What does this fold into?
Amino acid sequence: MAPKALDYESMNENVKKVQYAVRGELYLRASELQKEGKKIIFTNVGNPHALGQRPLTFPRQVVALCQAPFLLDDPNVGIVFPADAIARAKHYLSLTSGGLGAYSDSRGIPGVRKEVAEFIERRDGYPSDPELIFLTDGASKGVMQTLNCVIRGEGDGVLVPVPQYPLYSATISLLGGSLVPYYLEETANWGLDLNDLQQSVAQARSKGITVRAMVIINPGNPTGQCLSEANLREILRFCYQENLVLLGDEVYQQNIYQDERPFVSSKKVLMDMGPPFSKEVQLVSFHTVSKGYWGECGQRGGYFEMTNIPPKTVDEIYKIASIALSPNVPAQIFMGLMVNPLKPGDISYEQFVRESKGILESLRRRARMMTDGFNSCRNVVCNFTEGAMYSFPQIRLPPKAIEAAKRAGKVPDVFYCLRLLEATGISTVPGSGFGQKEGVFHLRTTILPAEEDMPAIMESFKKFNDEFMEQYEDYRGYSRM
Ligand code: DCS
It folds into this structure.
């Protein structure tokens, strides 16, 4: 009999080609070990609440009231909820058409999109149009929708940084496009070299690929670097010259752990550049409620803003968004709360600032602890996490470890990470899941474990690593760098 459409041999090959390491082999093994009763520290996903981060009080109060509007009629509501949370819940309910149980416009609630536009205007100092902002179920959905509009088939290429967050490689495979890699330079603090970029495009074109878009992740995942304004200008100039739409993944814009290079949005830099750039370069930028000090990953809230995208294309994107009817409505309220936070003088303001500052300051200390911890280990070097939520140390595996991995039928960094997991319970993602230069190995951890647990985790990592290196180092054949 002919195979059925959903038999494995006959299903869509693009689906089978997709690789997504953040929930790959290491994660599966960690879940198994956990079932067997081993204590696992899940540092494989940037999922702050799963590692004990507590939700901010005010936004949860507001959404709780929106979810249970009958509480607003309860005479005791003012005992449990502060007046500003009550007022804000009424505000958001008034923006919906039927509360949280009703679909919203497929682009998101107009009033919330207006709040997003006002946030962008305050951030960048340039006007933002709510009609060009779409709310999405997390930034992921926005990225997927945008790539879907860019990629027409195999011949269409998208420039993606390597290392990169595998949402990009996975979506490009799924849509049947071609990933065109450009390498970030580890020794230059994961900076981006324009010559290298140029070369990547030339190489792709010589293979008949039409390069149509470029992705930047700023601050970087997994690499943690913050792009300078000068670098962003170069990138935008490059996109102008090469006629590329820029996808600016800015989901970590609140996660900054140094003062030398604050976050600057691609939109601001583009507008600062003036015409012809500011009028011509097509830019789509992404944000989320999953990151920052919010960490509300499970709510699935995000937005994208389009710059220099013609109205007819915006209409098409609206049509495609409409197929899924409506983004999550509760998540839209979280987005509204994130972009329109409490102000000095509001009843809940001080508590909100205390909570959010507490999280950010602790993340800053944890970023430092992790980098320093990795750099104290044998054959490990690690750039400082300037931003985002990850540490991405390079593990200089001795040739004997690489041979042992081959014998075990594993990619060398997967071999190392599996051994680390078995020995310590620390669940990481091998660098090969994000892409890395040939013969160079990394792993990614999040900086999210509780601050008080961090010293013990780093100590346990160091003990494992140094013993591993001891086991495989051949002093005659391998010199330590
Ligand atoms: N863009 C980047 C660079 C990300 O790191 C993530 C999530 C997303 C987009 C999508 O986030 P939301 O869909 O939740 O808005 N990062 C994943 C990661 O590497 N660890 O945790 C999730």
